[in-house]
Amino acid sequence: MKKRWFLVSIVLVVLSLACESSGTKTGGSSSCSSSGQQGRCEGRYKKITGTVSETFSVNVYAGDALVDLIVSVGKGRMRVWFKTPDGQEVSAEAAPGTPAQLSAMADVETNFDEEYEITIHFEALDEEITDIEYKLNYQVN
Questions:
Q1: Is 59 part of a structural domain of the chain?
Q2: Which pTM was predicted?
């Protein structure tokens, strides 16, 4: 009986830690287009809290892609980041009137369906971030 409670406690701790790193997004819309080894995505969210990750499909696998990302916010501060092919994070901070701008090589990952994706992370630095807009361009190498 003690072992079961111990295991239940461990599971609850792990779940609570996982929840701390998640976030919510509301009022989102996006559109993407691609041609050959290039692509473009634009989108917006009404509100983000916590950290939200968004994946963007890439139609060609090459291990990495040059990504240009611009993110603007209407209220609050936000950090945006993605991983480079060597596992490092590149990030920038957005605030009202000061968009985040990143231009770097991004790691292209393979998901369970063997599709290729770039993952961008949006992290709220204040309690609530509103009126978020992003533009992402990529060039697969």
A1: yes
A2: 0.79
